[in-house]
Amino acid sequence: MNALALSNIGHAFLGRTVLDRVGLDIGEGELVALVGPSGCGKSTLLHIAAGLVEPRQGSVIRSYARHAVVFQEPRLLPWATARKNIGMALPERLSGRDRQDRVLAAAAAAALEEEDLDKYPVQLSGGMKQRTAIARGLASEADFLFFDEPFSALDPALRRHMQDIVIRHAGNGRRSGLFITHDMTEAVRIAHRVVVLERRGNGISGERHVPLTPGERDDRMIFETVQRFMKEDPLFRHVEELDERRTG
Ligand SMILES: Nc1ncnc2c1ncn2[C@@H]1O[C@H](COP(=O)(O)OP(=O)(O)OP(=O)(O)O)[C@@H](O)[C@H]1O
Ligand SMILES: [Mg+2]
Fold this sequence. Notes:
Blueprint: E1 2-13, E2 16-27, E3 31-35, H1 42-49, E4 57-62, E5 67-70, H2 82-87, H3 96-109, H4 126-139, E6 144-148, H5 156-170, E7 176-180, H6 184-190, E8 193-197, E9 204-209, H7 219-232, H8 240-245
Parallel strand pairs: 3-7, 3-8, 5-6, 6-7
Antiparallel strand pairs: 1-2, 1-4, 8-9
Helix pairs in contact: 3-4, 6-7
């Protein structure tokens, strides 16, 4: 059973085609990493999948109950504190106490200090804003998570910590997700499958299943898999620039 099924997706901005005949299925409990060069249409595809942009063509079938989106930019409400921003995505039915516990747990997972929670976005650093947005995604009861390069503003240690949280949160088969990244190590670490979007959004170039399940892979295996993908696998040839932009 698929949690998300995108078929024959086409889109254009100002008459310029950015996506053409893109199909992607994500199974229940599956975490898929989407990679591809800058500007190839990854964010646009994610926005279409999440129902934020209506595609010119194609169909989107969502079979999950609730989703959360962590955008490429933090997209926090400027007039609300970090605490309020994180609590925003929580289901209405939760009581005050449950809401508070959940906000605190998500904030702690995203390495935010309690004193930061009363700050407004303008008072937070770039990385803290991004972590607030990540905490908002984690706090929601979503069974499908969309992540658009969520960790690019974080230092390598924190990035690894956040990857572990995603693995625990979504890599264990209970939730599904689509995770965009420019970092191949990140993709191979957290995803069941890595999908490559063609450089001009002309369909999916191909995909590779990553051996073992997220969380079972050790650093050596991740390193060797990334080397194999980047150096030997023709599928990843056109995403070479990913490697150069790699930070983590
Ligand atoms: N709202 C918009 N109006 C016009 N053009 C847009 C809009 N959003 C995106 N585009 C264009 O669509 C193309 C795909 O953009 P998109 O943001 O999906 O790329 P991306 O693969 O996510 O890139 P990056 O890796 O840099 O985030 C780009 O050429 C971009 O300029
Ligand atoms: Mg993008």
